[in-house]
Amino acid sequence: MYRINFVFSKKNAMKFISHLDLLRLLTRAFRRAGIPLKMTEGFSPHPKISIAKALKLGVESEQEEAQILLKEMMPAERFIAAARKELPEGIEIRQAQLRFIPK
User: Fold this and answer.
1) 34 φ/ψ angles, rounded to the nearest 5 degrees
2) Pairing with 98, which of 1, 66, 72, 88 sits 20 to 30 Å away (CA)?
3) Which residues, including other chains, have CB under 8 Å from residue 75's CB and lie 6 or more apart?
4) Phi and psi (nearest 5°) for 85?
5) What is the pLDDT, as a whole number, of residue 97?
6) Whole-number pLDDT of residue 103
7) 38 CB neighbour count, 10 Å cutoff
8) What's the rounded Cα separation, in Å, for the pair 44 and 17?
9) Any bridge partners for residue 55, and if so which?
10) Is 12 helix (H, G, I), strand (E, B) or coil?
């Protein structure tokens, strides 16, 4: 299993998106980009993604930290390129770092 820690910005019209909607937006963009997401187990599986802190509605940010778990390796550069193609204007992944998580 792998973890990608990434930094993204949330600006312009995207500042009016709520925290839960932002999680859904990132999930959909990553699925469309073909990123191999690690899903939770159980009745209603969803990707293991977390954002360090929730922003208030209407607040812009340049340095939001988040992490997502992957089921297979994907280089950080490829993750950034694939995600940028699918993310809307106002959300941009600035940097990413891949880490291996031993079982």
Assistant:
1) 80, 25
2) 88
3) 98
4) -65, -30
5) 96
6) 72
7) 17
8) 24
9) none
10) helix
Query: Rounded distance, CA 94 to CA 2, Å?
Result: 19
The whole-number mean pLDDT for each consecutive block of 10 residues of the chain, a chain of 103 residues, reads 96 94 95 94 92 92 95 95 96 95 82
Sequence-ordered list of residues with C-beta below 8 angstroms from that of 85, at least 6 positions apart, any chain: 33
Can you read off the two tokens belonging to residue 64?
A: 């939001």
> Any idea what DSSP says for residue 90?
T
- Say if residues 89 and 25 touch (Cβ distance below 8 Å): no
> What is the total residue count of the chain?
103
pTM higher than the cut 0.85: yes
Q: What is the 3-state secondary structure (H, E, C) of 38-86?
A: CECCCCCCCECEEECCCCCCCCCEEEEEEEEEECCCCCHHHHHHHHHHH
Per DSSP, the chain holds a count of helices (H) and strands (E) of 2, 4
